[in-house]
Amino acid sequence: MSAWWAVLGGAAACYLLKLAGLSVPAAVLDRPRVRAVADRLPVALLAGLVAVQVFGGDQRVLLDARAAGLLAALVLLLARAPFLVVVIGSAVTAAVLRQLGLMT
Amino acid sequence: MTGPLPDQAHDAHRRVVRDSLGVAVATGLYGASFGAVSVASGLDVVQTCALSLLMFTGASQFALVGVLGSGGSAVTGALTAALLGTRNTLYGLRLAPLLAWRGPRRLAAAHLVIDESTAMSITRPTRALARTGFLTTGVGVFVLWNLFTLLGAVGGSVMGDPRTYGLDAAVGGAFLALLWPRLQDAHGRRLGLAAAAVALLVVPLVPSGLPVLVAGSVALLAGVLHGRRAPA
After folding, report:
1. DSSP per residue over B29-46, as a string?
2. Do B215 and A84 touch (CB under 8 A)?
3. How far is residue B56 from each of residues B12, B44, B124, B132, B180, measured CA to CA in Å?
4. Once rounded to an integer, what is the mean pLDDT over residues A80-89?
5. Does A44 contact B at CB distance below 8 Å?
């Protein structure tokens, strides 16, 4: 049930944020400081998400096959691989290492 | 200034449609990875499809299922998604004078304001081409993103333990790929590393989901400091 609250609440918030951009006069939000924060927010949030998804455990930091998956993603991105290849590459790397019993 | 000849205008229109459809196909396909990742994070197929239909902004969707999957609360999940969605507000500010839609059309268009539809319209020289780019990309991505979300979610839910297939690792890879364009300059890399480090530092200290929001506060700090240094 709680997941539904997140889905519906998050969706409503995201829609209103989109509509706000199309509706409010540009001067209201288009201030340097607001822009500076809004411009940096996705970078910080996504970086935080990468860290927590890959190294986060139950309230502790873990090093497991997910880290190898991230390393694979990094290599693929440096080689300019497209999005899907990067995602599949990190999954396959972790899956193979687990299958071989090399990492958990 | 005279307008372009009808033939040229027609060609330009066709080019915009073709490019937009290409972007729509490429983006829509990875709806499958969202679908699979979402069910791997514990959402069911209906919730997963509802997210793609109603939220329809990829990074926020990935973030929401990521936070819920790591045990975060509904509030932190929704808040993280909303914070990532703020960039769509900035896109809207740029698009509003270009598209110039009012009333119900604006309400409908708002749902289609995403990275790709913005990118395919803001560079167009005329309003007609901007609208064509926006609508073709927006509607194209919407249809395919939702279709592939469903396929990915159904596929993911019949496969069993997602860890066997490394789907938990795929989430990190997906986030890194979304972040990648912003890591091409030193500012982005410094900010990203600082935010990641802060998130991991607070992992043992605060409930699940919150470390990501704490990482977001690094952007707040960096942005405010920047604004102070360089007032307009």
Report:
1. HTHHHHHHHHHHTT--HH
2. no
3. 28, 17, 24, 20, 21
4. 89
5. yes
Report whether pLDDT(B83) > 50: yes
Judge whether A62 is closer than 8 Å to chain B, CB to CB: no
**Does residue B29 contact residue A84 with C-beta atoms inside 8 Å?**
yes
Tokens found for residue B128: 């007609």
CB atoms within 10 A of CB B146: 18
Q: Calculate the dihedral angle through the C-alpha atoms of B111, B117, B146, B65, rounding to the nearest 10 degrees.
A: -80
A61–B204 C-beta distance less than 8 A: yes
Give the start-to-end residue ranges of the domains of chain B.
6-184, 185-232
C-alpha B81: how far from chain center: 10
Q: Which of A28, A41, A64, A103 to mutate to test the interface with B (most CBs of B within 10 A)?
A: A41
Least confident span in A17-21, A61-65, B34-38, B167-171:
B167-171
Q: Which two tokens stand for residue A14?
A: 């995201």
What is the Cα–Cα distance from B96 to B57, expressed in whole angstroms?
18
B100-119 pLDDT, tens digit per residue, is 999 999 999 999 999 889 98
